[in-house]
Amino acid sequence: MSNAPDTGRVVVTPVRVVIALCLLAPFVALLWVGSYAKVDPALAGIPFFYWYQMLWVVVSTGLTVLAHQLWRRDQRTRTAPAAEGGASE
């Protein structure tokens, strides 16, 4: 038996669930066309249908950046104990 961590096993953590929700939210919001297929309320003369989609471009960018930061932090915390354990032996 080896003391090496099992890297082939998928571990579902709360952080990974949040990452998945951050990446899934824009798809759900934009594929549900019935929720925004209307003209009113207009913003500066732009129908709701258009400005809602453009708003999601900005929101999607923020959610993707957040997911990336959470993923990097998750990877650092997962690899840190393995590195510390290997250095002490």
From TrEMBL:
InterPro entries in the cross-refs: DUF3311
Highest taxon above the source species: Bacteria
Alphabetical UniProt keywords: Membrane, Transmembrane, Transmembrane helix
Signal peptide: none
Bilayer-spanning residue ranges: 17-37, 49-71
UniProt name for this protein: DUF3311 domain-containing protein
Organism: Streptomyces tropicalis
Species lineage: Bacteria, Bacillati, Actinomycetota, Actinomycetes, Kitasatosporales
